[in-house]
Design a protein that fits this description.
Elements: H1 10-23, H2 29-37, H3 46-52, H4 60-67, H5 72-78, H6 88-112, H7 115-128, H8 137-143, H9 151-177, H10 181-190, H11 197-204, H12 208-220, H13 232-248, H14 251-256, H15 258-277
Length: 289
């Protein structure tokens, strides 16, 4: 059993605001504008193309393996055809320009230029030094990209690395729990912390019938009740998934140390609260209905 010198779930508490700060870019008008400028106007592409570009001009099978909860049919509509419109390098450039513009708008110039931003970027980068590439394709692909020099972009890139590192490990935990892609989405939404089903169905390419069939399978396993709420067994399973994910993602936060993790969590939460207050996320993004 892995032991830790950190307080319980300290890594998860640090990850959560950084992950959310990372994701603000994908909901921003700047991201849509930059993709449109390089010819990507398909509504089905944006939520996957910015992340998958780090993998290079891959086909749908690789993306399905790395993304886990996207419908293969949706992926196959986007790749490899998208690479005829814009190269992965062009997409990555557009994403970084969007990150710069979106963070400047959401956090304001005084925060972007602050000593706290420089400190957060340094702490987050230190944490990434202990991330590992094996069995983590999305993290490994992003780890091959250079760190930006500007502190707010260095923080965003470090948050991206930490997000993908934890995310790749999370897929292992989902497999271990016996949750297929749609069951993972349904059970996560049932916790009250997952995306609204309408967002999931629109961005992941599943149909309402897929969602309902997955819910029925979860009921048959005793994980979901008739009203679509997690049972005691379902709540325990989802908690176990997160605990396994924490264990697989422990190294970067152990490397940073308890004081560094606490400080990075504090700074990350502050930045996230500022971004959220500036309208970084759609109001209907999170929820069960």
């Amino acid at each position: 059993m892995t032991t830790s010198s950190l307080p319980a779930r300290a890594g998860r508490r640090c990850h959560n605001p950084l992950n959310s700060l990372h994701s603000t870019v994908y909901f921003s008008p700047e991201y849509a504008k930059e993709l449109t400028a390089i010819g990507i106007v398909d509504d089905e592409a944006p939520f996957m193309v910015g992340r998958l570009a780090a993998l290079g001009p891959v086909g749908p099978g690789v993306v399905a393996a790395a993304f886990y909860n996207y419908n293969y049919d949706l992926i196959a509509k986007v790749v490899p055809a998208i690479w005829e419109i814009a190269s992965p390098e062009a997409v990555l450039g557009a994403r970084m320009r969007a990150a710069d513009a979106a963070l400047r708008r959401l956090l304001r110039d005084d925060v972007i230029a602050s000593a706290e931003m420089v400190e957060a970027a340094a702490l987050a980068r230190t944490a990434t030094e202990a991330c590992t590439r094996h069995a983590r394709p999305l993290y490994a692909a992003h780890a091959d990209l250079p760190f930006p020099e500007e502190p707010h972009l260095a923080l965003w890139h470090a948050a991206t690395l930490l997000r993908e590192h934890r995310g790749d490990g999370h897929l292992t935990a989902l497999l271990n729990a016996g949750l297929d892609p749609v069951e993972a989405l349904v059970s996560h939404t049932a916790t009250g912390r997952g995306m609204n089903p309408r967002w999931v169905l629109r961005t992941r390419g599943w149909r309402r019938t897929d969602w309902e069939a997955a819910a029925e399978r979860l009921r048959a396993r005793g994980l979901l009740d008739a009203e679509g709420e997690l049972t005691e067994a379902g709540t325990r399973l989802r908690a176990d998934v997160e605990d396994v994910t924490d264990r697989l993602d422990l190294a970067p936060y152990e490397h940073l140390g308890a004081a560094g993790v606490e400080r990075l969590t504090e700074l990350g939460r502050g930045f996230l609260m500022t971004a959220a207050a500036a309208g970084a996320f759609p109001e209907t993004l999170i929820g069960k209905g």
